[in-house]
Specification:
heterodimer, A: 278 residues, alpha/beta, four-stranded antiparallel beta sheet, 30% helix, B: 268 residues, mainly alpha, globular
Chain lengths: 278, 268
């Protein structure tokens, strides 16, 4: 479990990013960490991996303070940044040199994931395109069989087939022992992948709930006129309104992550009234 | 998990040597070319009679070259921290901080200096063999003038201390100053070379070739000034000098400790 305890964080000479933020992430889930640009998603992930030190509070994994960056913890936890660094090495050198640091690394799986992501394993890893470098790093991270995998905007720079491939690979990766947090501002990319949604804005967690729970409690539909009852959010579209209603009649609709994201950002108070925050 | 694992240090060394192979190879090649040029100049332009004196000059150049080259290599330590992307990868490697520092120390303070010395003296050996001048007597104890104030000992101690000091300063600079360290290295290395040329090489050349009058004058003024300073030191007692010397020998260790804390607190 990753536990963020009353964390406050401020970048030098800037306004605070977090003030007394507490949140926890459990194993066996894929969390979608959603928020606008600059909401603090990357900062939260970096605090959770010990790359940043909170000004107050602490982040710990299984009781170990993340900022200590103990090798035992780093063997189980990896953060994939938005822009990855790959050294000037061939694929086999990269696999041997970096894989040696991680006891659970499997060269076979690395090759398998490269194939899945359609990356030809020849030449030097740092000479591949931006999107491919990201896929190489992702393949490596997945082949390390980490218990905790934190991904920052993983789909940025990926083409549409790659995004589909990414969702497929990630769905196969999750197990009861693993925890994956994927941050993104492109919420559609994570649809049908995450099982818990965390929306963050203005240093606060605005929404923290499972997809199943949200599907049971919300009803997404399109109407000609705005309904008077149970309306949480509406947005005008061609020929009517897209609305989100409180679902009290047991109706079923597919969860529209983008609508939900917009709704939570526009009507944070309405959502906080109906949904318990963690 | 052990505090220092030899396996991890080996992996870090392998990683660093492979990733920075171009830099290390170019450094060694640069040293080789410089030594070759000096040796060729020595054998082609200096007459048989002056070789004794000129060998003094060659030894000085080799030693100063060694100090500067070691410092430059030390400045390349922790290259991963020079940009945020590579810092993230580096800081996430599951190794302890002493292991990270030790692997860099092995390269900057042991492996590369040994390879450089091998290049210096290997090239020298090659040339003396080719020109059959192995038996030409040399001045084996050239006195390094700034070192005189650091250690009233043999020249080897002066060289070792000076190398260790400069290397550790740039080693620490690689973590504290990041990209600025290269500028710092280049500027201070330039100043260092100028100082050494004025204080040591010019007097050596003065004996065998004519130098412009102004340079000779500068040389004389500096030499006189230093000699007076040295006398003052002698008079004020050795105790102060001894304490200062102990401090200088401890400085590399203190700088390494500073590197350790800086690395531990490093944020990306």
């Amino acid at each position: 479990m990753i536990k963020i305890n009353e964390v406050s964080f401020t970048y030098k000479s800037k306004k605070p990013v977090f003030n007394q933020l507490s949140v926890q992430f459990e194993r066996g889930h894929i969390y979608g960490l959603l928020g606008k640009n600059g909401a603090g998603k990357s900062t939260l992930l970096r605090i959770a991996t010990g790359l940043l030190r909170p000004t107050q509070g602490n982040a710990n994994v299984e009781g170990t303070n993340c900022f200590l960056r103990s090798p035992a913890l780093l063997q189980k936890m990896l953060y994939i940044p938005e822009e990855v660094y790959l050294p000037s090495l061939s694929f086999s050198q990269y696999e041997k040199i970096y894989g040696a640091f991680y006891p659970k690394f499997s060269a076979e799986q690395f090759r398998h994931y490269l194939l899945e992501f359609d990356v030809p394993a020849n030449g030097k890893v740092n000479e591949c395109s931006y999107g491919q470098q990201k896929k190489i790093f992702m393949s490596f991270a997945l082949a390390c069989n980490m218990d905790y995998l934190l991904m920052d905007e993983p789909t940025n720079g990926m083409d549409i087939p790659s995004k589909k491939q990414f969702r497929k690979v990630m769905a196969g990766y999750i197990s009861n022992e693993r925890l994956v947090i994927i941050s993104s501002h492109q919420v559609r990319d994570l649809e049908n992948l995450m099982d818990t949604i965390v929306i963050i804005d203005n240093s606060k967690i605005l929404l923290y709930d499972t997809v199943d729970s949200l599907q049971n409690r919300l009803y997404f539909t399109k109407t000609d006129t705005l309904p008077a009852a149970n309306l949480l959010y509406s947005e005008p579209v061609f020929g009517g309104h897209d609305v989100i209603l409180l679902n009290d009649g047991g109706q079923h609709s597919a969860l529209d992550t983008e609508k939900l994201f917009n709704a939570v950002l526009c009507e944070p108070e309405a959502f906080s009234k109906h949904f318990m925050q963690h | 998990m052990p505090f220092i694992s030899l396996k991890n240090i080996f992996h870090l060394l392998k990683k660093q040597l492979l990733e920075q192979r171009r830099f290390y190879l170019l450094s060694l090649l640069g040293i080789f070319v410089t030594v070759v040029i000096f040796n060729m100049a020595f054998y082609y332009f200096v007459s048989e009679m002056d070789r004794n004196k000129y060998s003094f000059f060659c030894i000085l150049v080799s030693n100063f070259g060694f100090i500067i080259a070691s410092s430059l290599v030390a400045a390349a330590s922790f290259y991963e921290l020079h940009n945020p992307k590579s810092s993230i990868t580096y800081l996430q490697l599951p190794v302890t901080f002493p292991e990270r520092i030790l692997s860099n120390i092995i390269i900057a303070f042991a492996l590369m200096p040994i390879l450089m010395l091998a290049v210096f003296y290997g090239t020298d050996w090659l040339f003396t063999t080719i020109y059959n001048t192995r038996n030409v007597p040399r001045f084996h104890n050239p006195r390094l003038v700034p070192g005189l104030y650091f250690a009233k000992m043999f020249s080897m101690a002066d060289y070792t201390l000076l190398t260790l000091l400069l290397t550790s300063i740039y080693f620490a600079g690689s973590v504290f100053f990041k990209k600025l360290n290269w500028i710092l290295t280049t500027v201070t290395a330039g100043l260092f070379i100028t100082l050494l040329v004025c204080l040591n090489v010019l007097p050596a050349i003065n004996g065998i070739v004519s130098v412009p009058f102004i340079l000779a004058l500068c040389n004389k003024v500096i030499a006189n000034g230093l000699s007076r300073w040295d006398n003052q030191f002698e008079q004020s007692g050795y105790e102060l000098l001894r304490i200062f010397r102990i401090f200088l020998w401890c400085l590399p260790a203190l700088l390494t400790l500073a590197v350790y804390y800086r690395l531990k607190e490093k944020e990306v």
